[in-house]
Structures are given as structure tokens and as C-alpha cells.
Amino acid sequence: MKFNQILPSFMIISTVLVSCEQKTENPLLAAYDTPYGVPPFDKIKNEHFSPAFDEALKQHEAEIDSIANNSEGATFDDTILALDNAGQLLKRVSSVFYNLNSANTNGDIQALDKELAPKLSAHSDNISLNAQLFSRVNAVWEARENLNLNDEQLMLFEKTYKSFVRNGANLSESDKETLREINGQLAVLTTEFGQNVLAETNAYELVVEREEDLAGLPDGLVAAAAETAKNKGHEGKWVFTLSNSSVMPFLQYADNRDLRRQVWEAYKNRGGNGNDRDNGETLVKIANLRLQKANLLGYPTHAHYVLEEAMAENPDNVQKLLNDLWKPAIAKAKIEAYDIKKEIEAAGGDFDPAPYDWRYYAEKIRQKRFSLNEDELKPYFSLDQVRQGAFEVATKLYGITFKALENMPVYHEEVSAYEVLDADSSHLGVFYVDYFPRESKRPGAWMSSFRSQSTEDGQRVAPVIINVCNFTKPFGDKPALLTFDETTTLFHEFGHALHGLLSNVTYCGLAGTSVSRDFVELPSQVMENWAEDPAVLKVYAKHYQTGEAIPDELIAKLESAGTFDQGFATVEYLASSLLDFDYHTITSPITVNAREFEAASMKKAGLIDEIIPRHSSTYFQHIFSGGYSAGYYSYIWSEVLDADAFAAFKETSLYDKTMADSFRKNILERGGTAKPAVLYRNFRGTDPNPVHLMKKRGLD
Fold it and tell me: For 325-347, how does the pLDDT look when each residue is reduced to its tens digit (9 = 90+)?
């Protein structure tokens, strides 16, 4: 996963730090007396959040009232700019709370999250549905042609005006009340959905008692499972969990088919076990409420509502891309399924492959076909080396450097901090990293911010950015050794971080990742290309014991296997994208249960039995609690862009200064100050060519 939006949509507001004279004993309500103005995590306690939110909401309400009740004629500065600057304290408190809720939560934080959801939804509605406030915004909008605004001001203005309209400002009073009810319900339901997935993920343990049941598993995974067992009170046994760093290699290597089945069933049934954490009814309610909201606002479906502000523009354009990719992908997946069936038969098996067999037998085929296995690769991908490799790529491209910061306040002992310096040694921002799984952290990987970039009194306010992942932990005397997939994930999230760190705009509402969903993945996905490039691998992929660079023979194997199993990878992703679209292009309420809906969706798509969607409905956090509703297609849409963008570098050189400067100037620094298509053409000089994506995935 990837970029993480931690706040309700209308609360993406200014992040400049403010001094609060009241209740200074609460560290959230005082100016941060910390290096670079980062949050004082060492002083923040759970009990500080509720009063901090109360005070922040009170201040924001007063600011909004002041704007709405201004007796002077409405202007850009006293209305549009004032709205962008309002709510600084609320943004500051929210950024800390919601980042902790994602990365280091606990019972108190989760309880407050449920309590806050309807309250913040109502607060957002009180702004967007404030008739007096909107009348001022509308008055400025109608006079816009005479305002002589620059391009960035025009983008902020358009975004602000559309936000009011898209959030119901033009509705009748009765419809506004209906919208408030819908938004309140959605706030609660989406919060419950995410909490249920985390609880289900944490609840499962596969306890292995017999050593023979570990056959096939890599030594590192076995040692990590023994350590997990010890920590969970199962000394002398092995425990496997549903974190990706545990479940995926288990499915890939475990010889015991019955245990693979058990783990797989637990993984795919998260949120669908018929208990008090079941998400089936919840997600149907969410989808139906989104349809009701879209209709109320004048859109035929939720997808039409979402895509109006996306690069894709409308559902037809997305459906075309997904269908065009589905045909070659499913054809390739069927060939791969046939190969797996033959591998089962060659091993003496007499059964049809099930989903929990795919990774296991695909790994067998990969080892035979390319003489490549993950255990051979992992010693070259220690976490420290991979992270340093990502830093070095950024240095060569953009001239920036990273300086480890000691004695910085952090919210968990596993978190590290870096100062980011520009080529002239000026301060660009602070970068936190939090890489290992724990029960207080939700699954996946993402980037977020504790402070977005903005400009105050002509001075750049530096951002505070974080990457959060769930990588394999170190054990014994070995460092954390990453799979190649985890390696590309680190580069991916680092690309998001660069988007936030290098932002250089005037208005907070347009900074960094404040862009459409199907454009926000470009900076992240393009970075994956450097992670995979042979010349770059020789620089950062070094054996953790000998320090020797990864041999050319292994790189050649990686390249040869580059498109191996891409039918499966593409199909499981596209299946989730199509499922997302089916939930959000409904024109009448869903009346069947979630499992029936998903089954019908996959039957319509033509998904084969050996594969299920990467994210099944009851744990599909991206779309039901993560801000990607009708937007999971964004990754493949952005991949068209990133494949084309990297091709531009390959046409010149990996670190071509002119190309890198253009990407930084036109993409990374500009945030949402222009339409994504314009930003991309400013960089590339032309629209993206999808041929590069097809070639990259081996679907050409």
C-alpha cells in the first residue's frame, strides 16, 4: 500500500506550527520545543488527545466563524487563503493522533478514534455546509476572472470551491441533513472496518509443535517463528502470524500442504469469520451509503463522484484500461496455472492446484527455470544496505543527503529519524522510518506526514515525513534481511516520502501528495525501477557478512525471472481493482452478502479458481477504510506513467541531471499546483506511452 491519507478530506489544512497560550501543560497545545519542531513524542500521553481535540475544534470553529461573518466584501485573501490557513492546531493534533493510530495504536487510542469519527465528520460538514461561508467563496468564484491570480492561486481556488460543491454546499437544507447523516455513518463504519482487520490479523497464530512440519521453510523464517513463539509464551515451538513477512514466505516454501491451507484460509477470511469482528455487513452498508451520497450530490455512482477529480476523469476510461490489461494477463495466468498443474503431477501429486498451492509451486518452477531462490538473494538485501541504497539514488538524482539524527523524540524504540539536506546543505525536512511489524501497527506499508510543507511569510516551512512498513525483523546475530519484494516496497514508500520532502509550494492545501489518487503513485512507483536496475543493484546490494556486491550471475537470474509469474501478479491485482469498481459502480443498493457479491464479480471477470483477488472484500482496507474507494486502479494507472518516465531516464542515463532536475521541478516539488496531465507533460514533453508498461510486465 502506499500513500496514507490520515485525515477526513475537508481537514487537509495548513500545518504551520502555532503557539497556544492555553493549557500549555498539554504538549499538543504548546509550541513544540523540539529539534526542527517535530512532535514531542516523549511527552505525549493518551490522555492528552481528547482535550487537545476539544481545544483544536474550538479554535477552528472560531476561525471559520470569523471568515464566514466577515462584514467586508469577500476577497481571495480573506476567504480562500484564510480557509487554507485555518485549523492549524487541528491539523497538528490530528496528524499525531492518526499516525499513532495507524503505526502504534492501543485500546485507548482506538476507543477515542471511534468517538472522534462522528465528531470530526460533523465538524467537516459544519464547514462545507455553512451557507454563509459558501456565499463568500461563491462570490469570489464568480469574480475570479477579474482577480489576476497566478496559477497556484487558481489551483487552490478551484480546489476550495469544488470541495464545497462536492461536499454538498448547493444542496437543499433537507438534503444537507441527509448528507450529514450519511457522512456520520460512513465515518463510524470505515473506522470499525479498519479496526476489525487489525484485530483479526493479530488474533491468529499458527502454532507448530513438530519440527517435521517446518520442512521446506528457510532457516531465517524458522528462527523468526521460534522468536515469535518465545515472545508469545510458546517456548520451544514455532509461531507464524498473518503479517506479510510471515504468511507470504510460509505459503511460498512450506512443504506441508495442510498447514499452507490453514494459513491461507485464515488470511483470506480476515473480517469474514462470522464473529463480532466480521466486516461483511459493514462493507455492504459502506458501499450502499456511498451510492446514496453520490446520488444525493448528483452523480450516478460513487465512482463517477470520485473520478471527476482524477486523471482518469470517468469510469469508462478506467474500465477500458483494466479490461485491456485483463485479457493478456488472464491468458498468461492460465498458462502459468497449467505449468503449476504439471509441476504438481511431476512431484507425484494428484490434485488440482488451489490458491494456497500457487506460490509454493511457482517457487519450485522458478528455481528450476532460473536457478533462483529468495534465500540466495536475501543476504544481499540487508535493511540498512537497502535503505542506504535508496538514499544514494536520491543523492545522485537530486543532490539531497540524509543525516541520522540521534536523541530525537520518537513514538516507538524501533523508529529512526533523519535530517534531509539539499545540495546546498539547507534543511529540507525530517524523515522518520518505522520498518518492523508489531501488533500495534496495521498491516501494509505507507507514507504519511506529521507536518506538510507550506510557506509562511515567504519562508518555506519544512515537512516532517514518515515511512511505515512491516518488514522481516532481525533475529539472533543477523540483521533484517529483506526479500526482493520488500526491497522494492522500501524504494516505493521512499518515493512517496520524496514527494512530501521535496515539496516547494506556497499553500499547504496543494503541498506534496495533495494530488489525485491516480497520480500520487507516480513518484513512488518510478523509484522501484532504480531498485531493480542492474547498475544500481551493484552499488547497494551487498552481502551482509562479506560486503561483496551481488554477483552478475544473480543479477542476470533476477532479470531473466523479471516477468516470471506476472500473469498471476497482474491478475490478482486487477481482480481487486475490478472488485473495487463493482462495489462502487452499483446503481442500486446491494442486497446480497459480501461473499455472494464478490463471487459474482469474479465470475463476471472470468477469474480462474486458482487465484483470488489480492484483497478480498472483508479485509480490503484500501477501499473500505483507506481512501482508495473507486481508486484501487490507481496503481496500474500510475504504472503507465512510471514505466514511461523511467524509459525517459533509460533513453539518456540513470542519473541524467537534466531529466532528474525536470522530474524534481515538475513533479516532486509542485504537489497539486497544476493538473496532473499538465505536470507530466511538463516533465516528459508528451503524454505517457502504455507500451512501456506492457513490456515491463511481460504482457506485450
Answer: 999 999 999 999 999 999 999 99
Choosing from 227, 251, 268, the residue where a domain stops is 268
pLDDT score for 387: 98
CA gap 31, 107 in Å, rounded: 28
Q: In this structure, are 160 and 216 located in the same domain?
A: no
Give me the phi and psi of 563, to 5 degrees please: -105, 10
Measuring CA to CA, which residue among 473, 491, 492 is closest to residue 482?
A: 473
| Residue 424 neighbours by CB under 8 Å, 6+ apart | none
Are 469 and 390 in the same domain? yes
| 135 and 212 part of one domain | no
462 touches 428 (CB < 8 A): yes
Intervals of the chain under pLDDT 50: 1-23
493 catalytically annotated:
yes
Q: What is the DSSP string of 547-594?
A: -PBPPHHHHHHHHHTTTTTHHHHHHHHHHHHHHHHHHHS-SS---S-H
Q: How many domains does the chain have?
A: 3
Rounded distance, CA 491 to CA 536, Å?
12
- Residue 405 forms beta bridges with which residues? 417
In a domain, 23, yes or no: yes
pLDDT digits (tens, 9 = 90+) for 454-473: 999 999 999 999 999 999 89
Distance of alpha carbon 332 from alpha carbon 326, whole angstroms:
10
Q: 691 lies in which domain range?
A: 379-560+635-696
Q: Residue 579 falls within a domain, yes or no?
A: no
How much is the pLDDT for 23? 43
Neighbours of 303 (CB within 10 A): 30
Is residue 198 a part of any domain in this protein?
no
Instruction: From the candidates 55, 493, 532, 598, give the one annotated as an active-site residue.
Output: 493
